[in-house]
Amino acid sequence: MTEATVIDMKPRPRTYIEKIGSKEWELPEADLSVTDDVALWSDNPRLQTALMAGVHSEETLEAELQRTNGYDALRRSIEDLGQMEPIYVWRADDTAKYVVLEGATRVCILRELNRKHMQGKKAGKFSRVKAKILPPHFTEVERAILLARIHVRGSGVRAWGRYIEAKFIYETVEDREGRRALMSPTEMAGYMEKSVSWVTRLRDAYKFALKFVEHVDTDDAERLAAENFSTLEEISKANTIGSQLRDYDNANHDGLRADVFEMVRHNAFKEYRDARFLKDFHDDPEKWSQLKSGEKHVASRLAMDVKTNASSTKAKIAAIETQVQRAIERKDVEFGEEDVEALQRTATRIYEHVHPGVRPFHVALKNASRALGEATLLDVKALSLETLAEFREALDYFDGLVSRHGKGA
After folding, report:
1. How far apart (Å, rounded) are the C-alpha atoms in residues 202 and 216?
2. How would you write the pLDDT of the chain (409 residues) with one tens digit per residue?
3. Cα angle vertex 81, ends 76, 85, to 5°?
4. Architecture of domain 15-158
5. Across-strand partners of 179?
């Protein structure tokens, strides 16, 4: 009788092929102990609004992670379904613990659940964590690219929030004391799949927030900067006055900057949109004096005054739609293509001001797609050969760009 062949049915460890930066990496998956094999990263960007740079205990880091957004929902999911996605870990040599570069929240949750279920049918279920092992020669640049891909381009619980994104960008693209930038803003924009202006805008807003931290000069200054970051960002790009506030080498603007920082510190702005009227406030001595008074949320009332002022540009823009609708209902005016083009040019100017440096191409493309989808037979018959030829030429050019450089290329 032939002896049966013994077959090893144990699954082999997975290997992930991932492109990070310009390279493709083979990342083996490992099953690690959440208590003995991995260590939390004290420079985790998600924790930097709560912790100063330096070495912190595992207990302190876990306590901060438990306060982050989305922690409770993710804990319930892991307790019910288990760990769904592996974390990323790295170590310089075989004698050290693996440092958790991405996935610290999952490790923290697994540790908490492991302590909770020391006995019973779930005992031991949460003692191990699946991890992708990054090689020892994985560089700081590649680490920044990995984090940008996961968190800056991510959403939901993975999203860092605007302040942390801005800090991460600043620390990656800016030369600092004793440390060179890891990459240029253009390179960062490419890895994040964002525009260069988006990257530089956040970098500059963070520089402005750093000045706020210097001005406040208290233990909770960074926390205040994080909580008020949207307002600080809006102030830093305010029409005319924003450029003065960012002119850090000009001592003539130091007093103005101090006044504005005190307004933020005393919660003069209920929401960041109120800061858009900063120039209007500054041009009116009475309004500026009220902003400096320390009254909480005073900017909301002053902004309402500006918006309801019939002579303001914003009020005139807000009234256009109503005026046009009334004219149509009265049938006392006949509109032509030149009127539509004039409004489109105006909208473009506003869009460029709201999003500096970003062309309003996406809005225009959506409008064009909507127009094509709603085209009628009469519309097509009314097209001139010249207009149709111009459209086809533009479409051929666009199709060529998409085929060469689009995401599906």
Report:
1. 21
2. 567 777 767 777 789 999 988 889 999 999 999 999 999 988 888 777 666 545 568 888 888 888 887 889 999 999 999 999 999 999 988 888 999 999 999 999 999 999 999 988 899 999 999 999 999 999 999 999 999 888 876 665 567 788 989 999 999 999 988 889 999 999 988 888 788 888 999 999 999 999 999 999 998 898 899 999 999 999 998 888 999 999 999 999 999 999 999 999 999 999 998 998 999 899 999 999 999 998 999 999 998 888 776 556 766 776 677 677 767 766 667 777 788 888 888 877 777 666 554 456 776 777 777 777 677 777 778 888 888 888 888 888 888 777 777 766 5
3. 100
4. Alpha-Beta Complex (3.90)
5. 176
Location of structure tokens 């290997």:
15
Amino acid, single-letter form, for residue 395: L
Ranges for all domains in the chain classified under CATH 3.90.1530.10: 15-158
pTM listed for this prediction: 0.69
Rg (CA), the chain: 28
Rounded distance between C-alpha atoms, residue 229 and residue 237, angstroms: 12
Q: Is the Cβ–Cβ distance between 245 and 260 less than 8 Å?
A: yes
Question: What is the three-state SS of the chain?
Answer: CCCCCCCCCCCCCCEEEEEECCEEEEEEEEEEECCCCEEECCCCHHHCCCCCCCCCCHHHHHHHHCCCCCHHHHHHHHHHHCCCCCEEEECCCCCCCEEEEECHHHHHHHHHHHHHCCCCCCCCCCCEEEEEECCCCCCHHHHHHHHHHHHHCCCHHHCCCHHHHHHHHHHHHCCECCECCCCCHHHHHHHHCCCHHHHHHHHHHHHHHHHHHHHHCCCCHHHHHHHCHHHHHHHHCCCCHHHHHCCCCCHHHHHHHHHHHHHHHCCCCCCHHHHHHHHHHHHCHHHHHHHCCCCCCHHHHHHHHHHHCCCCHHHHHHHHHHHHHHHHHHCCCCCCHHHHHHHHHHHHHHHHHHCCCCCCHHHHHHHHHHHHHCCCHHHHHCCCHHHHHHHHHHHHHHHHHHHHHCCCC
Amino acid at the residue 352: E
Distance (Å, whole) CA 44 – CA 41? 5
Angle between helices 162-173 and 140-147 (to 10 degrees): 160
- What is the C-alpha separation between 106 and 71, in angstroms, rounded? 9
